[in-house]
Design a protein that fits this description.
483 residues; alpha+beta; 4-stranded antiparallel beta sheet; Methylamine Dehydrogenase, Chain H; 29 strands
C-alpha cells in the first residue's frame, strides 16, 4: 500500500507542478505590478505632471489612457494600433522614439506592455495610489512634515525645505511660503541651490523602489530634469563650482555624477562598502569627496573617475560608526564631517605624507561631541564658524562652533531630532529643522531664536500668522494631543 501511494505521488507530482505553471502563465498582466514599474524606470523623466513632453503624462493609468498631443496612447485589446507600442519599438535597427533619454526598453519589457494591452489594458491600481500629487494638487498636511534637508539660496532671498513629494520655497526670513515644487519623489533627502542660484538640485526617490535626481528652474518653478537612478532613494546632492555637474550618493554603495544639461552620467565610482550619504567638490572641481555608512571619507578624481584615497584613517576601530554629512570649506580644501560618533571633525582633502597604518594624519581638528548622531554640518560663508545638528533618543541639538576652538559658541537643545542646518548668505543667521517640521532661525553669533515657523501649511488651521507662529502652535497642540 505504501509503495502504491509513493508511486502515485511520484507520478502525480509533475502533473500538479505543470498545472501550477500553467496557471501562473495564464495570470493576467498587471498594470500596477508589471507595466507601471517599466514606465516609472524609463519614461517618467520626460512624462510626468511637472515635465510633460508632448503633453503626455505616464504617471498613472488615467494619465496614460488620456494620451498626449498625438492622441490616445493605448487602444485596449489592440497593441498594434496603440501609439505607445509604436513609440517604444522599431522595425529597423534605428533606436525607437521613446525613451528619448536612456536605453531602449528591453524586448521583455515591450512584450509585457504588449500583453497588457492585448488583454484589455485593465487598471488594477490600488485606490490609495490612483491620484498622485501635482503642482495643481500639492500635498495636504495635518502636521508639518519632517524636514530632512534645507538650503539658503546664494542671493539670500529663499530657503528651500524638503517636504513630502515636494520642496517648499520660503522667504529666507521665514515671513512666507512663495513656491512649491511638487515631483515624483515622496522622500526628499537633499536640496542644493546651484552656485548662481538659478537651479535647485533635489535628491530623493521612492524608498526601495526608485531613486530620482531632479533639477528645477527656480525662477520659473519648472522641472528641467528628472533622472530615475537605482532602486532606492539617493542622497547628498552637490554642485561642481562651475555649476555644470551634480554629484550624489546611492544606496547601492555607488558615488555618481551627471552632466546638468544632458543628464548623462559622467562619474561612477564603487569604492564604498555601504550607502553613500553625502558629497562635496574640491575648490577647483577636480576632485570629489564622499562619506558613507562604511565609516569612510573617500577622495575621487573627477576626470578619470579614479578612487584616490581614504582621507580618514583605515585603522579598524578608529572611526566609531558611519559618516553622514560633509561640507567643504568655502576657500580651502578642508572638509567638515559629522556622523555616528557625534563629534564634528575637519580633515585636509589631500594627503601630504605617506600613509602609516594606525595614523589619522589628515585630521586637522576634532570638536566637542554633540549628543547622538550628527546628521548635518555646514561652514559659515567666511569659513570662520560652522553649524552642526544632531539626533539623540528622540531629541536633538544645534551647535555653532568657532573653527579655531573645540567647544561650541552656543547650543540649542531641540525637543525633536535635528536633521538639517544651514548658514544664511550674510552669515548672521542660521536655520535648523528636523523631526517636528518646525524651522527655527537663530542669530549666528549668540543663538538667539529669531523666528520659528512650520515647514508647510497645515490643513484646517484657523490661525494663519504671517510669521508661521500660529501654524507652529497648531502643530505642537496636535502633537501633544496625539501623545
Amino acid at each position: 500500500m505504501l509503495v502504491q501511494l509513493t508511486v502515485a505521488l511520484a507520478v502525480g507530482a509533475p502533473v500538479a507542478a505543470g498545472q501550477e505553471s500553467g496557471a501562473a502563465a495564464r495570470e493576467p498582466t498587471s498594470f500596477h505590478r508589471d507595466v507601471r514599474p517599466i514606465l516609472q524606470a524609463s519614461c517618467l523623466g520626460c512624462h510626468q505632471p511637472a515635465r510633460a513632453k508632448g503633453r503626455l503624462v505616464l504617471t498613472t493609468y488615467d494619465d496614460l489612457m488620456k494620451g498626449g498631443e498625438d492622441g490616445a496612447s493605448v487602444v485596449p485589446g489592440k497593441p498594434d494600433e496603440s501609439l505607445l507600442i509604436e513609440l517604444v519599438t522599431t522595425p529597423d535597427d534605428i533606436p525607437p522614439e521613446m525613451p528619448e533619454e536612456g536605453d531602449p526598453l528591453t524586448p521583455e519589457a515591450v512584450d509585457t506592455i504588449r500583453r497588457w494591452i492585448a488583454e484589455g489594458a485593465i487598471d488594477d491600481t490600488p485606490e490609495s495610489l490612483a491620484h498622485p500629487f501635482t503642482m495643481e494638487r500639492p500635498p495636504v498636511y495635518a502636521r508639518p512634515p519632517v524636514v530632512s534637508a534645507l538650503d539658503f539660496s546664494p542671493d539670500g532671498r529663499l530657503l528651500a525645505l524638503s517636504g513630502f513629494h515636494e520642496v517648499l520655497l520660503h522667504r529666507a526670513d521665514g515671513s512666507g511660503l512663495v513656491g512649491r515644487l511638487v515631483g515624483l519623489s515622496e522622500r526628499i533627502e537633499s536640496v542644493a541651490f546651484s552656485p548662481d542660484g538659478s537651479r535647485l538640485a533635489v535628491a530623493g526617490g521612492l524608498p526601495a523602489r526608485m531613486g530620482e535626481l531632479q533639477v528645477w528652474d527656480v525662477r520659473e518653478r519648472e522641472l528641467r530634469l528628472s533622472l530615475p537612478v537605482t532602486f532606492d532613494t539617493i542622497y547628498g546632492a552637490s554642485w561642481s563650482p562651475d555649476g555644470t555637474v551634480i554629484a550624489f550618493g546611492c544606496a547601492d554603495n555607488t558615488l555618481r555624477a551627471i552632466d546638468v544639461e544632458t543628464g548623462a552620467e559622467v562619474l561612477y565610482q564603487g569604492a564604498h562598502a555601504d550607502w553613500v550619504l553625502d558629497t562635496a567638490f574640491s575648490t577647483d572641481g577636480s576632485h570629489l569627496v564622499s562619506v558613507g555608512r562604511d565609516r569612510t571619507l573617500k577622495l575621487t578624481k573627477v576626470a578619470t573617475q579614479q578612487f584616490i584615497d581614504n582621507i580618514t584613517s583605515i585603522t579598524p576601530g578608529a572611526l566609531k560608526g558611519g559618516l553622514i554629512a560633509v561640507d567643504r570649506h568655502p576657500t580651502r580644501d578642508e572638509l567638515l564631517v559629522g556622523g555616528a560618533d557625534g563629534a564634528p571633525k575637519v580633515y585636509r582633502m589631500y594627503r601630504e605624507k605617506k600613509r602609516v597604518i594606525g595614523d589619522d594624519y589628515n585630521l586637522i581638528r576634532a570638536y566637542a561631541a554633540l549628543p547622538g548622531r550628527v546628521f548635518a554640518v555646514e561652514w559659515s560663508p567666511d569659513g570662520e564658524h560652522f553649524i552642526a545638528g544632531s539626533s539623540h533618543a528622540g531629541t536633538g541639538e544645534v551647535r555653532v562652533y568657532r573653527a579655531s576652538e573645540e567647544a561650541p559658541v552656543w547650543t540649542f537643545e531641540s525637543p525633536r531630532p535635528v536633521y538639517a542646518v544651514a548658514f544664511h548668505l550674510g552669515g548672521a543667521t542660521v536655520a535648523a529643522a528636523g523631526a517636528d517640521g518646525v524651522v527655527r532661525l537663530f542669530a549666528a553669533d549668540d543663538g538667539r531664536l529669531l523666528r520659528e515657523f512650520a515647514a508647510a501649511p497645515l490643513e484646517g488651521s484657523t490661525r494663519t500668522g504671517s510669521d508661521g507662529r500660529d501654524a507652529v502652535a497648531d502643530a505642537n497642540t496636535n502633537e501633544h494631543e496625539d501623545s
